[in-house]
Design a protein that fits this description.
Blueprint: H1 14-20, H2 30-36, H3 42-53, E1 69-70, E2 77-80, E3 88-91, H4 105-117, H5 124-131, H6 136-151
Antiparallel strand pairs: 1-2, 2-3
Helix pairs in contact: 4-6, 5-6
The structure holds zinc ion.
Zinc ion is lined by residues 60, 62-63, 65, 80, 82-83, 88.
């Protein structure tokens, strides 16, 4: 006798999971960034976003259901049948600041990277020039959205940045440098500001 074993979806333990996550975007050098995200390669960005956001596979952003279906007809889209009778469809971008934007994901990543790796911070004007955006307003808007997302405890950046207080405002970066153990979870990470934009 016995029960039928429940259908199990094996989940690897935490340690294994975190290994599968690529390093956050702010810990990359400029060269690493450009190698990982070639210009125009949106799929590279989405692959990375998925690995950072959902290392165990897509999860419904509305109800948290991990048993979602990959929509074969639409790349980077899934369907959850738990929170909507007809199925709730969502993309990799839903619930992040990259949703509903007409800018390539690569631009968002690059601006995030520039903002978090430039030692003295970067102005909207500098971003505008560097990125070659049509308007200063675009640069300002993106920077504003990213900065706001860094302060929010949520996952608006899709996990591409590991947010802790050392990132907010780009200040107090080295404040805890000597107090190892207090911020045990952040040990071994490269705080922003220490990494130069070398190429
Ligand atoms: Zn759902």
């Amino acid at each position: 006798m016995g029960y039928a074993a429940p259908i199990s979806r094996e989940r690897p333990p935490m340690a294994t999971r975190s290994k599968r996550r690529p390093q956050p975007v702010h810990q990359m050098s400029s060269a690493e960034f450009d190698a990982r995200f070639p210009i125009g390669d949106e799929d590279a960005c989405k692959t990375y976003l998925k690995a950072r956001r959902w290392p165990d596979g897509a999860v419904c952003p509305r109800c948290g259901n991990p048993n979602v279906y990959d929509l074969k007809t639409r790349k980077w889209h899934w369907q959850c049948e738990q929170c909507a009778p007809d199925g709730y469809r969502f993309s990799i971008l839903v619930g992040t600041i990259f949703e509903n934007t007409n800018k390539p994901l690569r631009d968002w990543f690059k601006v995030t990277h520039l903002m978090l790796t430039s030692k003295k911070g970067i102005s909207a004007r500098q971003l505008w020039r560097y990125m070659g955006f049509g308007s200063l307003k675009t640069a300002w808007f993106m920077a504003h959205r990213i900065r706001t997302a860094l302060i929010e405890p949520e996952t608006k950046l899709g996990g591409i940045v590991e947010v802790d207080e050392t990132y907010i405002g780009g200040k107090s970066i080295n404040k805890h440098g000597g107090k190892t153990g207090i911020h045990g979870g952040t040990r071994g990470k490269t705080p922003i500001g220490r990494r130069s934009l070398r190429s």
